[in-house]
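Reminder to self: tokens first, then the designed residues, so the page reads top to bottom the way the pipeline ran.
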């Protein structure tokens, strides 16, 4: 067990090494995926996802990835609300273009895969990938309100729709019921959390936890994540929705910076890199390279994602429109989740699953270029507000974080 874990942890260090430059174009997750490919079934065979330990780590990593993505969405953000209308318009434009483009791409590059999957992939954006890139450039606050509304809307919608395209028509009612239950429990968690946050007894307990090192808030966060994920597995609902919902609860409650640091260390320091390494180990790159149709699918899918988002940005975004469109097109969380679920259900062949992840990787560098263009264009506006989830209101001096 520890031998395999050692390999996974070491492979996870490849990501930061790849992204260690002063102005990196390739984020850490691409390095982690590449390391998994080299060490997994397409390479040295040192990582086997079928072992119980790795399977558990893979599931937890996926749930934590979506949790982190959800924490980056602050529903009360004035910046997010200010960008809601143009963001919604941009997403509608992308969907209108994605339906015919996705259906054509699926018919051409993957005729045996579920046809409705590809419009969903083309329309998506990945908050888990786009927001860290934007944060790294210091792009926070109302200056990019359009992206702070557009990306979460696209991410949440496609997160809900994607699993339904892979599970078969007979399972859709049960999956929808599971997702509804997850959303209901998430809303209940929000209500309970907001009331508990004002309770003197809870505040006292939280202070004692901080003083005595209990990490109580982190434990409650993980409890919520596990409860929602258990509902997903028992009802046929989506773990994507479970993790995303748990993250939104945390962002809504605006828990203190200490919990954010604990969660970041646990998720981004271990579980999320392990997920991408294990996903890479499962991808069959040999099947991709041996299938010209799958290679064509990867390039067509990436091109469609970029073009549809650029057209939408040209219609609604301020200058620099190219920067907004490229930044919104970042996709890796959704393709990774699609490949994971598609391989598990048998809905996707190994070559098509690898092609979908490859297409997601092909959007990352353009998104990084777009964020750099935004940063260069907006630098004259003034320094970005600091800290917190993207879209969070700036901290007021003298007030607790």
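Designed residues (401 positions):
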């Amino acid at each position: 067990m520890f031998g395999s874990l050692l390999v996974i942890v070491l492979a996870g260090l490849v990501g930061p090494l790849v992204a260690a430059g002063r102005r990196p174009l390739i984020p850490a997750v691409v390095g982690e995926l590449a390391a998994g490919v080299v060490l997994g079934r397409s390479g040295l065979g040192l990582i086997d996802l079928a072992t119980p330990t790795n399977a558990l780590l893979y599931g937890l990593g996926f749930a934590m990835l979506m949790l982190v993505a959800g924490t980056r969405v602050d529903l009360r953000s004035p910046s997010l609300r200010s960008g809601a209308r143009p963001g919604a318009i941009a997403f509608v434009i992308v969907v209108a273009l994605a339906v015919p483009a996705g259906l054509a791409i699926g018919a051409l590059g993957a005729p045996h895969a579920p046809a409705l999957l590809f419009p969903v992939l083309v329309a998506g954006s990945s908050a888990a990938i786009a927001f860290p890139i934007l944060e790294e450039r210091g792009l926070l606050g109302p200056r990019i309100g359009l992206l702070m509304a557009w990306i979460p809307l696209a991410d949440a919608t496609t997160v809900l729709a994607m699993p339904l395209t892979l599970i078969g028509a007979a399972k859709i009612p049960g999956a929808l019921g599971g997702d509804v239950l997850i959303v209901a429990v998430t809303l209940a968690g929000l209500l309970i959390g907001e009331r508990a946050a004002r309770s003197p007894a809870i505040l006292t307990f939280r202070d004692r936890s901080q003083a005595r090192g209990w990490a109580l808030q982190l434990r409650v966060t993980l409890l919520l994540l596990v409860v929602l994920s258990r509902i997903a597995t028992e009802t046929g609902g989506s773990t994507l929705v479970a993790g995303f919902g748990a993250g939104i609860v945390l962002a809504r409650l605006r828990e203190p910076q200490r919990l954010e640091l604990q969660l970041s260390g646990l998720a981004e320091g271990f579980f999320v890199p392990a997920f991408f390494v294990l996903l890479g180990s499962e991808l069959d790159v040999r099947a991709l390279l041996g299938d010209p149709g799958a290679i064509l699918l990867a390039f067509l899918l990436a091109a469609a994602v970029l073009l549809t988002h650029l057209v939408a940005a040209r219609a609604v975004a301020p200058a620099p429109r190219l920067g907004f469109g490229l930044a919104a097109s970042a996709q890796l969380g959704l393709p990774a989740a699609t490949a994971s679920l598609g391989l598990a259900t048998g809905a996707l062949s190994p070559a098509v699953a690898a092609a979908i992840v490859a297409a997601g990787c092909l959007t990352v560098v353009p998104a990084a270029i777009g964020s750099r263009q935004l940063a260069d264009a907006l630098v004259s506006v003034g320094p970005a507000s600091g800290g917190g989830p993207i879209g969070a209101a700036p901290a007021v001096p003298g007030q607790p974080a």
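The first helix runs from residue 2 to 12.
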